[in-house]
Amino acid sequence: MRRRPRGKTILRCPHCGSDRLIFEGGLILGQLYHCLACDYVGSLVLETDEATEKRTAT
Q1: Residue 57 has pLDDT above 70, yes or no
Q2: What is the DSSP letter of 55?
Q3: pLDDT computed for residue 26 by the predictor
Q4: Which of 5, 14, 24, 32 is at a distance of 20 to 30 A from 43, taking alpha carbons?
Q5: DSSP assignment of 5-52, as one string?
Q6: What tens digit of pLDDT does each residue of 7-51 get?
Q7: CA-to-CA distance for 35 and 37, rounded, in angstroms?
Q8: Are 5 and 41 in contact (CB under 8 A)?
Q9: φ/ψ of residue 45, rounded to 5
Q10: Rounded to an integer, what is the distance from CA 42 to the centroid of its chain?
């Protein structure tokens, strides 16, 4: 079985769906992300790739 090539990974905010996320911290706290659009701070983010984004947009 051959794998399909994956595109660039896109992280999205689970609250507003924006891709304007920055990495806040790690280590003991785990991964924390901050959404610049809605001020969400948390470890849960949605991860997609460019191929999926293009396929769902059409």
Answers
A1: no
A2: H
A3: 75
A4: 5
A5: PP--EEEE-TTT--S-EEEEE-GGG--EEEETTT--EES--EEEEHHH
A6: 788 999 999 999 999 998 877 768 899 999 999 999 999 998 876
A7: 5
A8: no
A9: -135, 155
A10: 12
Q: How far is 2 from 37, CA to CA, in rounded Å?
A: 38
Q: Which residue has the tokens 């948390």?
A: 42
Tell me if 15 sits within 8 A of 38, measured CB to CB: yes
Q: What is the sign, positive or negative, of the torsion defined by CA atoms of 6, 21, 46, 24?
A: positive
Q: Extract the tokens encoding 4.
A: 């399909």
User: pTM for the complete prediction?
Assistant: 0.70
CB-CB neighbours of 53 under 10 Å? 14
User: Which amino acid, residue 32?
Assistant: L
CA distance 37 to 20: 7
- Whose tokens are 């949605």? That residue is 46
